[in-house]
């Protein structure tokens, strides 16, 4: 007999160890591809063919603190806009109230952005591609110690995630799981995404358990960095009051990450 889902209804699908939910996997993968454009292979090709001029590299090295934050916020906002489009296509998300949708995004968009960034990061050369130019991670070295620690922690997480070489399907399922993990959809729905992720990983790795544990550990660290990011942004607002002015930083970025008192 069917077992009622935590929300009280009956599940439409059954996810078992030998029966992955192919429709859910296909839908999430299509949503991820649609929202984030290039496939992982194409992104890898871009990493191989892109280059950076000495002039551009020096511009980044000489960037002052406020300009560096503006560049960071602009790049992150571009990724977040794609994440929002992805979220709209994830099964169940649009059924939630607008308030809950916003709360869920605020609670995890930083972690989801880190997942997307790994598609543009080469762990072999520890370099990141931005606008068809490759930048070694060593370029991004904040002078303020707390910001440097934040950067190093983020770089470590992104590097470790990239080394896992997740497929687009796995990235999509991981993102959907994180997105809905604290939602009101019920544990059954949330477990569907987790189970599908584990089953998808198991198609290429016999023992998927350790990789799943590694993913959870990295995401936990990213959540800590997400809180630190908000704290550091608050410090930036204190040091540079003009950062709170309209147009100084993207409105969406400030809406999602500004500390409560800002």
UniProtKB/TrEMBL annotation:
Pfam families linked to this entry: Hormone_recep (PF00104)
A GO-annotated cellular component: nucleus
Keyword Zinc-finger: yes
GO molecular function, one term: zinc ion binding
InterPro entries in UniProt: NHR-like_dom_sf (IPR035500), Nucl_hrmn_rcpt_lig-bd (IPR000536), Nuclear_hrmn_rcpt (IPR001723), ThyrH_rcpt (IPR001728)
Alphabetically ordered keywords of this record: DNA-binding, Metal-binding, Receptor, Transcription, Transcription regulation, Zinc, Zinc-finger
Protein localization: Nucleus
Start and end residues of each NR LBD domain: 39-262
Taxonomic superkingdom: Eukaryota
UniProt entry tagged with the keyword Zinc: yes
Family that this chain belongs to: Belongs to the nuclear hormone receptor family. NR1 subfamily.
Protein name: NR LBD domain-containing protein
